[in-house]
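Lab meeting minutes (informal)
Scribe: AK
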Amino acid sequence: MAEDVIITGASGFVGSHVAAHLASNGYHVHALALPGERIPDALCGEGITVVRADLATCDIHALVLPKDPVCLFHFAWAGVAPESRSSIEEQKRNVDLTLRAVELAHQQGAKRFVFPGSTMEYSYAGTVINRSTPPTPQDAYGAAKISARYFAELLCRQHGIDFLYTVISGIYAPDRLGSNVITYTIEKLLAGERPSLTKLEQLWDYVHIDDVVRAFRLVMERGKNGGFYCIGHGDNWPLHNYIYLIRDLIDPSLPLGVGDVPYKDEVMPMSCVDLSEIERDTGYEPSIDFKDGVASMIEAVRRRMGQRSEN
């Protein structure tokens, strides 16, 4: 009989991919999605039950969910858009949302609670991220993420639930849209335009979504209580290395506007991860090199742009 897993925020990009991966590996996923929210195709396969509920306001005792699930993954988070990240009131509510997720895990008898963070909460520490890295949140979003982490860990300890914390580096994927330097560069170059960029001297790490979802499964299955698990590829290159590689895959003769845009801050962020703890405890190793992974992303963006031009 398949073991049960609960995922909040399952309709989001990472949540939906984790749900699909766990279902394909024999788990029965109970995916929480907001009422009226569009359900992505990733949640429409076998082994996934969608549960419509607003965790922030619903009666958690009335939710129809399995008892004794292996794990509850808490991906639900409001106010992720750039214009909402500085709203203290909106981000404070995410701390309460996280604690409600822990109470739901306790009510259902979950053995483990996985809480994801990102390198954004540590990007001005000036060092590779691991459990000894001091948090350096730059906005209300980051402060709430850090606060929620510590509150959730304390509440999990009170309830006897294993708490596993993850820090994810920059995710890229063929189906990921949005405003980021990789997508921007690819779209500009494919359109025959020169992308305008900073000097891109920041040290950065990027990880393919397929490695991310596998890492989450391994953390759930093998991670140790109290683990601090960075999920990434571990390249930790200067950002311009990634951009030049993208340009060369598309057309080495295309111009790049590296240095066209001045830096906004005197201190540059840094998004580098130490994978030693996750590798030691779970056996995780990244399997998709950036060159191979971004090549498939370039082709996916090329197809989307071609479809748009035909319409």
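Next up, CB showed the second protein from the same session:
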Amino acid sequence: MDIRNLAAIVTGGGSGMGAETARHLAKAGAKVALLDVNIEGAEKVAAEIGGIAIRCDVTDEASAQAAIAQAAAAHGTARILINCAGIAPGARIVGREGPHDLALFNKTIAVNLTGSFNMLRLVADAMAKTEALNDDGERGIIINTASVAAYEGQIGQAAYSASKGAIVGLTLPAARELAKFGIRVVTIAPGLIETPMLGGMSDEVQKSLIATTIFPQRLGRADEYAKLALHIIDNVLINGETIRMDGAVRLAPK
């Protein structure tokens, strides 16, 4: 898919992998709308790349609908959706203060899973009504973000791992269903990426995690996620797959 002049939406665009992906999309010629509850961060990146920032709660239907409509009014119907919005709280199922807080579990599922599905269904509906972009019949692509925790969740990651495992499970059926519209669905499962989410961990915890990475033995960078996303957009044969990007890390129990 030729990215030039296409409309793109990036959720979680105010920081981390979302922000870096927005930068790479804009550099490649896309018209980018950055959606985030962190509107200050999104506005800063948007000003830098010539995009637009829109406040959006991806878990809320009306908020998502309004944000997609605003993005379409500015740039046209989105042909690219990259879901980077997410949270990663840590809590044990049974901890010192009792059982896992149910509201925290529900919030994690709501942001990471329901939010991604909410955006996927709404943007796919709009994409399906557009004209094909090329001889392959492509109309657009949706890239979701999972995590290696979908496969090797650590102690304290029950909610996070469940939400990301569900994203992996969503990928193939969504790709199969949307194929008739020429819409691809792909998921990236990053490993240990140097983002604000991981930055909240202590140096000791970060070093212990890095030590489990085979090669290269360092944290991944947000621009490496962005580069993979752009390759996926370009390569039409990549569809219905979850791609690990993790330096061969396999997370230990804790």
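CB comment: The mean pLDDT is 95.
No objections, moving on.
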